[in-house]
Amino acid sequence: MAEIIKTTCLHANHLALGAQMSPFAGFDMPIQYAGITAEHLAVRQSAGMFDVSHMGEIFIDGPDAERFINHIFTNNISGMPMGKIMYGMMLYPDGGCVDDLLVYREFQPDHYLLVVNAANIDKDYEWMLAQQEGFEVNIDNQSDIWGQVAVQGPLAEKTVIDVLGLDCAAALGFYEYCNALWNGKRLIVSRTGYTGEDGFELYTDQQGTVEIWNRLIEAGIQPCGLGCRDTLRFEAGLPLYGDELSQDISPIEAGLGMFCKLDKAEFIGRESLVAQKELGTEKKLVGIEIQDRAIPRNGYPVELEDGTQIGTVTTGYHSISLDRSICFALVKSEYAALGTPLWIRIRKKTFAGQVVKKRFYQTNYKK
Questions:
Q1: Rounded distance, CA 221 to CA 214, Å?
Q2: In 174-264, which ranges are E strands?
Q3: N or C end of the chain: smaller count of CB under 10 Å?
Q4: For 6, what's the count of Cα atoms within 13 Å in the CB-facing half-sphere?
Q5: Bridge-partner residues for 285, per DSSP?
């Protein structure tokens, strides 16, 4: 039976703009419009916008909402101020990752919004429901109701204020949000970003999402596809679920332990992460810079000079911003130290490189 491919509320807009479309996370999504390089540079130098309506929105409320989220979430939301956003993961008991996500603390007591990855919406929702016993909470998957446009780049703030009239954006710090109205419907304006640049996410109903998109297009903002979204997030050292995090890759292995508060009394997977911290892990995620223009790709072997394979590339590109060939790779922990020489096998040849910091590009968030 053929897989059913979903579409976002902006699908017709993408087709009208001549976007190159492709299935992604169960949705027919734009990969590029003007080209990955042009779109990438628009975000780095001015502003670009993305349809991210495929992401999931799950609302949780009730007397035990804080306690429940702390139970399923690696970060600590205790005492989290209203209007703040927090990044973290949901884990299986063995420390593998169900998903990485954002938690929004709503502007009313005991109310939260969880934003999850598109490919994991159903899985995440079912996982939350399975953990609900013993907690007085309501879990409401509204992913089919909301749309979302992300505006990213050094001119993002000016764009959302001048073009959309969203003055509340100027007062937001990094990982904060405000509520506004768009045609009488709720509009969430958040400042997180997934590109390494300043940026905003605009969540509202589907009709409002189309109107926001069209207004930005009329103002000349560059539409951007998932192709450059991947090159941008990768340069900034940000993980993609399924590549750098998965059921088989824990946050400790991925170098994301800072988002796992092991001093919390408990959360699902905590004991496994504590053991990994104390005993170490067999593999670690590293950055590698290659001394050549050859392009490493997902799945390519990482080797020692004698040809012994010690890891695998998870994401790799010839960086548009940096003009260097770089990659993330999951390697045996004993070869993860900065400066370690490693080789990437690309078809029949190997290319020398060395371990470097995973944040390849100097990010420009508004702190």
A1: 10
A2: 177-182, 185-190, 199-205, 222-224
A3: N
A4: 14
A5: 330
The one-character DSSP state at 119 is G
Show the tokens assigned to 109: 């007591």
- 316: Cα separation from own chain's centroid: 17
Q: Which residues contact 184 (CB under 8 A, 6 or more apart)?
A: none
CA distance linking residue 210 with residue 147, whole number of Å: 8
DSSP state of 3: P
Structure tokens at 362: 């100097």
CB-based contact 356:288 (threshold 8 Å): yes
Contact 281, 322 (CB under 8 A): no
Distance separating alpha carbons of residues 46 and 35, to the nearest angstrom:
16
**CA distance linking residue 85 with residue 105, whole number of Å:** 6
> What's this model's pTM, rounded to 2 decimal places?
0.96
Spatial CA neighbour of 147 closest among 13, 242, 16, 48: 13
Q: How far apart are CA 128 and CA 137, in angstroms?
A: 11
For the stretch 92-149, pLDDT in tens is: 999 999 999 999 999 999 999 999 999 999 999 999 999 999 999 999 999 999 999 9
Q: Alpha helices, DSSP H only, in the chain?
A: 11-16, 36-45, 65-72, 121-130, 156-162, 206-218, 226-235, 270-279
16 Cβ contact list (under 8 Å, min separation 6):
none
Q: Please name the helix (run of DSSP H) or strand (run of DSSP E) that holds residue 27, with its range, or none.
A: strand 27-32
The DSSP call for residue 176 is B
Q: How far apart are CA 319 and CA 41, in angstroms?
A: 11
Helical H segments across 35-144, by residue range: 36-45, 65-72, 121-130
- Take residue 145 and report the two structure tokens written for it: 């109701």
